Amino acid sequence: MSPAIALRRAAAWLLRGAAGAGAPRAASSAALPGMGGALLSPARGLQGRDAAGFLGIWGGPAAGGGGGSWWFRCAASSVPRPGLLVEQLLVGGGRSFATGAAPEEVSFSPAAREADVSPPEKSVGTSDKTMLGDRSLKLVSGVCYLPHPDKEETGGEDAHFIWDEQAIGIADGVGGWASYGIDAGQYARDIMSNAVTAIEEEPKDSIDLTRVLEKAHSSTTVPGSSTACIIALTNQGIQAINLGDSGFIVIRDGCTLCRSPVQQHDFNFSYQLQSGNSSDLPNAAQVFKVPVASGDVIVAGTDGLFDNLYNNDITAVVVHATRAGLDPQVTAQKIAALARQRAQDKNRPTPFSTAAQDAGYRYYGGKLDDITVVVSYVTAFGNS
């Protein structure tokens, strides 16, 4: 099936969809001011959306991306994606991206990398890499967490874990709960703690992250809500599960190997877990399987990272850091520092400002937020 047909079918399905359940969150228009960028005024009214909350769907060949590279723009997000991934995510049973049930599983071939705003990169093959066929690899990880400047005293609302050189996780608590007198970060911290407990109950070489997320969700009973992203090294590569606008990127030899897409109901209104069944559920999460090799780098982050840095920004820091022999902790600090710098820049384009403009707002600059960055080097056992 050609990418063009895939896009048309995806558009037809999405425009028939219905919006998902909600939880206490600020409305999109109310959430824009005070984010570090400049909001002037809506460029056009938002009342023209269809029932699914979409403003429009477009697609076409990516500039410089070759015959198989296409971009797809949907709702308020501009998401470059190769044609293979478009078909897998949006045609081959995949229905989510913003409103419906997520595809049960998405597999990335080693050559399926995301098209970027940077110049065309060399293709990534497998001839010079040995894919993971057993537990001969480990994750050497480091983290940097920068709370929103206004939330430093309370510790912010993000949470994370690093477990046994095999798994990492991040969560972003929804700040809207603070207006109810609820610590918006406690839910995120609890769901990450419960995820670790669930991982420890799994067979070490075959962790089922769908089951892990379901257990973590059912065990988290404090009021609140959050996104969740968990990544584990298995005997098939890495398995990842993601719900919401946190996510991860895998980098190999200076190229983006894959990037998890954002799950959102509408602009600035992401999927999120909440106690009970009143919001999005774990079965709405997207599951990924990605073959990895020693030398690959995984960067996971909350939206404070991905709202402020493009893929090529993150990749550039990783390339510089690995060439300089920096450990993942320092690499995470450098990425987080750059994300904070961009978040405070009111004049530089960011992924968030691009999405805001696509949604009809004249918004410029970054989005000030909690920033969590976990960097994992895929490393062979015996190497530090």
UniProtKB/TrEMBL annotation:
The EC designation for this entry is 3.1.3.16
Signal peptide residues on this chain, from the entry's feature table? 1-20
Query: Which molecular-function annotation in GO is an example for this chain?
Result: protein serine/threonine phosphatase activity
- Domain PPM-type phosphatase intervals: 140-378
SMART domains given in the database record: PP2C_SIG (SM00331), PP2Cc (SM00332)
Q: Which cofactor does it need?
A: Mg(2+); Mn(2+)
- Entry-linked PROSITE patterns: PPM_2
Q: Region labeled Disordered — which residues?
A: 108-129
| SUPFAM superfamilies xrefs | PP2C-like
Q: Which reaction does it catalyse?
A: O-phospho-L-threonyl-[protein] + H2O = L-threonyl-[protein] + phosphate; O-phospho-L-seryl-[protein] + H2O = L-seryl-[protein] + phosphate
The source's superkingdom equals Eukaryota
Q: Which keywords annotate this record?
A: Hydrolase, Magnesium, Manganese, Metal-binding, Protein phosphatase, Signal
Q: Which Pfam families match?
A: PP2C_2
Q: Which family does it belong to?
A: Belongs to the PP2C family.
The identity of this protein, by name, is: Protein phosphatase
Instruction: List the source organism.
Output: Triticum urartu
* UniProt gene name: LOC125513742
